[in-house]
Amino acid sequence: PAAEAAALMSCGIHTVLVVPLCIDEEWWGFVEFDHCFTERVWSAAEEQGLRAMVELLETVIQQAAGEEHLRRLLAIIDTVLESTADGILVVDQQGNLVNFNQRLVAMWNLPDAVTESRLTEEIMGWMMRQLKIPDVLLRTMSELGSEPDAESYDILELQDGRMVERLSKPRKEGDQCDGRIWIFRESIA
Known about the structure:
This protein is of the alpha+beta class.
């Protein structure tokens, strides 16, 4: 339009190539190439290049929105994990630590050096040293290692006299077992 052409000419812009930027069919703006000083006809390669750049930008914006959604979901999961009265320890199929909550840390008096290691062996080792009969936990862990779909329940007696219920369930993704959840609850006598 003449009014836009006059505005662009006043800025020294003679020709523009404009591609709209849309995210999920919502117009966000546009990306443009400006050519100053002379009139110009844009080549097909320049048009394709600008369109490819806009498509890449749209993809990046959509991924960022997806990552933000994922961050919000993880924050909700962390809130739920921390709001329970039970100590929770989650491991993957290889026994690697996935997550634990602060209730577990408090219940078992886990020192920072143990929790910061993020190693299942360190955490379980600390827990076994606090048990009157550590073999109970070790035996159950090895039995469950050979039966990934099995659930188990034990009552553990700690050296300080506390009794802790321990429940273990498989962690599943669909029908596949991909780890284990250990739930610890102090028994009230």
